[in-house]
Here is the input.
Amino acid sequence: MTLPPGGRVQASWRHNFNALACGLNGRGRAGHERGAFAGGQLVVSGNDDVIAMEADAVRDSRAGNVDVLLLPRRPISALLVFHGPFVRRIRDDIVEAIRDYRPGRMGQMPPTRLDLSRLHCDRESEVPIQLPRRCGEAARRVRFASMGRPLEGIRVVELGTFVSAPYCGKLFAGYGAEVIKVEPPGGDIARAHGPFPRGEPDPEASALFLYLNTGKKSVVLNPREPADRDRLLRLLETADVLIENYRPADLAALGLDYATLAARNPRLVMVSITPFGQYGPYANYLGNNLIAFAMGGQMYITGTFEGGPVKNGGYQADYQGGLNAFSAAMLAVLTAEREGRGQHVDVSIQRCMAPILEASIPYYCYLGQWSGIRRGNHMASFIGIYPCADGHIGIHLMPRNWKPFLEVIGRPDLGEDPRFATQADRVAHNDELMAELYAWAATETKHDLYRRAGAGRAPVAFVHTMADLIESPQLNARGFLQRIDHPVAGEGIYPGPPWWMGPDDWGAGRAPLYGEHTAEVLGRLQT
Amino acid sequence: MRQPLDGIRVVDLTMVWAGPMGTRLLGDYGAEVIKVESPRQWDLLRALGLIPRDVPRWYNQSAYFNHNNRNKYAVSLDLAHPLGRETVLQLCVVSDVLVENYRSDVMDNLGLDYETVRSVNPRLIYVSMPGHGKTGPEKDYVAYGSNVEQLAGLVSVSGYEDGEPMKTGFSYGDPMAATALVGAVALALRKRRLSGEGCYVELAQRENLTMFVGEHLVGYSLTGELPQPMGNRHPHCAPHNVYRSAGEDRWIAIACETDEQFRALCAVIRRPDLTEDPRFATPAARKANERELDTVIEGWTLQRGHHEGMHLLQRAGVPAGAVLTTPELVADPHLRSTGSWVEHTHPDAGTWEMEAPPWNLSLTPGHIRLPAPGFAEHNDWVFRELLGLDDERIAALYEAGVAADQPDETLHR
Here is the structure.
């Protein structure tokens, strides 16, 4: 039900029933003691004959109306109690627990994740609460309680531009850390990148910046100015993690090398993401996404032989750096929290990229075998991309997929063809099979084929465009696409989380305006 | 200093690439990883080593397997048998993390779903790494390596300028899921310390990789314009491309982002006149005339090797990099001097070089302390030491075929 500002609901209740009241949105108070609750929080009532919920008189502009969901049940089972230390049986305990929460402590539970049609308030009949059995499905819908996001209490300073360090920082912010992005005068260069709504360049509306900086705070400081450098050093004394992607020599020239920072804050985890790492002959070579992609070995094997090496779309070397850095940084965070000591985490994008060329490194290092030919869109006729009537489809057929695949495409005759009887035969007659598959694929439409192949358990997918992603039944059913509003750029669709750990564990707010939090963050330093 | 994951025991039910590489990274940084393979469903990578089948214990000599499974122990258990299921649940009781990468319904059908495992050990962190996720209308669709990047939207923005969408050169989604696994497990360990409980982690490979094209998705939602493949080009900067070098199929990447870098480039290739040329004098002009500029640059790069070109340009302050082949990566002086390749000895496979742990953590650098396990190599240790099974019970496992010392070789002949 939705409560207007100041509104109150008081429902008489069977005393031997418990109630779960779930605040979906807004802020209000619950019970006789009027304990505060907020959207995403759970109120549990024990032995009582009245359930009272009221909305705050002043509506929170951000949260909107107060929506609550009431669920009656027979005495709460031990299984539910198991879900969180604040879930109690006795009313007084509940009131105390409510008083104890800090607002926001329990995180967010977006109403879209709840199947409201299955949960309704009926005072007389018992509505069983389905607790997760198979966690995959059920836990997405019903896991009422959590302890806040996994990185709550961690403060991160991001002294990074463009893609690699910002992606690492974005993951920290999404999983609950406070991420303070220090931008140089003029701002992160990603602000100038675009694409921009209506094609009009605007530093507050670059899609690259908006995506990579969700949920962060922006502080503008010029580390070349002594006063600002001093502020930055004091800010770093309060930080758990520093993420940076300067060239090592440039950072040292600013007097922000690890030794200097560690002397002032021994607990600091400093994460450096660079194309070549912190030492070695190329450490101070200039690099960017294209150079790292070349030096990491992934470019040589991508594209066609004639067309020459080509990078993958977007900034894949930088993203790899950012993701590797996040995982490495988390290991150092665990260590720092256990040992009380930080350390320097050195992530070389080249070193992360080089060993993961499928089996190429193992085969070359162990057997001395190497065939580096670029194969374009086909590893073989049965692993590759083909144009179809309205786009492109991709097949990846292992030997056991051959029969199901032929069923799906309605060509059992190919299964009878001796040229294609075994995988070895299919390799031997690669070009003939490819010709058959080109002819077949041209007759297919991507959505229809994908659904048929899914039902027939054949590994066939289609090349999803951005429009296909936004319309994807799968991604939408899973709540992977979130609408996030921004005061300048407007509402956009953002993917996330990269992995799911609980309904409240990921939260992506909008990207900050240039210097939006300078006063707040620096003001806090002075006190 | 103790390694970051010291004292964390991982039950590894994964096979092939994404899962095993991920749990190997956990092992590189201190976790005790126990790989569980069924005598009848053992890891395919053991069979992809190009080792002749008449070599004794050929399945222990696959480098593809041995690179991705070092720092692990191995036990054989058939999870489809009630005794195997029971034994793996016993292992879960004394472990911290379970990782699986089966299709979304397999663990449920084995009776090893999260709720079951949680009921024996509520502190356990249970990680699933399915292609599509455990929910949604496509959850049971089959997706292998190259499908994941198609589903993630990456292929639609990859490829030559004005060309067809292009696949990556390898199953890119797999190592990215492996890399993400470490971050996810570390987050879950911190969460467990705060809450006292384990949790369920679902790492859907297509979603993890979709994060890598997020700006295109946000951009499309704001502009309504579908992004197109751009080859090696940059939307604003030029020159930004790959150029032929002397030698057979050798290439060099050059990517200038500032006027200063462009001036330096012109000086190195002895064409200072270009900086005054109105076609190339400003960033916008260079972008507009990038094809002409490429022709001039390639005239210079073709005359020298890709390493030589790189060093000449880098010393002058121009971002440039040789497009390295696999043999060049292994020989690369920079990677070698930073210890990226290390010699390694394995009792069945011999001595060769493999990649070091990828991240250099100054206090806890990671290390290789165990070669990849042979099939079922640590059955005895797991059954007796970890689980305290008696002789009778162990004999029953072998008798039922749930455990074995050799794999069923007919599976991957």
